[in-house]
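Below is how a single chain appears once it has passed through the pipeline. First comes the sequence as given, then the structure the pipeline wrote out for it. We keep one example in the README because the format questions we get most often are answered faster by looking than by reading.
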Amino acid sequence: MDQKKQAKEITVPDQEKLLQKEMTSSDYYWNSYAHFSIHEEMLKDQVRTLSYRKAIVDNKHLFKDKIVLDVGCGTGILSMFAVQAGARHVYAVDSSDIIHQAKQIVQDNKMTDKITCIQGMMEDVELPVQKVDVIISEWMGYFLLYESMLPTVLKARDQWLKPGGHLFPDQANLFLACIEDADYKDEKIEYWNNVYGFNFSCIQSMAYREPLVDTVDAQTVTTSPCKILTLNLNTCKAEDLTFTSRFECFGQRNDFVHAFIAWFDITFSCCHKPVYFSTSPASKYTHWKQTVFYLKDTLSIVSGDKISGTISVAPNSKNKRDLDITIHVDFDGQYNSVHKTHEYVLR
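Resulting structure:
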């Protein structure tokens, strides 16, 4: 028996009901995305938004007269790009109350005959079509996988995408490298050793466990990068997002290592000319920045030294949107050796 709920199209008058809605803690996550400031940050990220626009609008042959599904549509910007590219109709789905603003934006831009806004969990939504030709989604989080939206996109792919249909984007890679970051480590972590003469080392332990999302200066990178995950969205499965990968990073100069950093790149490979962008420290700024994992030990490296080990990533057992990340480091250098496992929670 089909347990799915019939999706309700959002109408503009429904916005008035928001004023009467009492928020609960269970609503917090999804409705944090209802605030315009989060969408402002994403829209102003030109690397992100212009890459999507280029991939969609410059490839009208993939959108002309097609049915499109926008998973996690937010303000509806990607849906409107799809209409510009000639889509016959777009179904824009989002769980948060930003869908009400999306509905108004669609109306204000005279696209109501082309875009249907639907509020609901993608897993529960019933579309008024059997299949769609294209799925577009901006699902990436910090460290690529934070917030666990990709499994929702994969479920939508399996249920709604026609054979031979297209995903925008359809490829992603995750990378790891090492950085020298003594000053910031002292400021953010070593600080807790002595707070006005008191020992706050219990806070320091917490600081080590929580990765930092921040902009990293490319000049601080001291090793070669190593790819730790490759995803082909056409074929990958949700279980592929829980993984263990070996890594090897090689020293590029005589320096120190205080932390690992991670970043990702994204490719729209089905385009006539593939569209690509990177969130690496050597690339233009994006709101994803980079993710920093501080080490308790400082590694003294010389050019050519190998830092190897394994990284394991899995959804947190208490909150699947958080990530448990374990990095085991093996290093035997000219000046010191470290063989240690570090555990982190990205939340």
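The longest helix spans residues 46-57.

See the next section for the split statistics.
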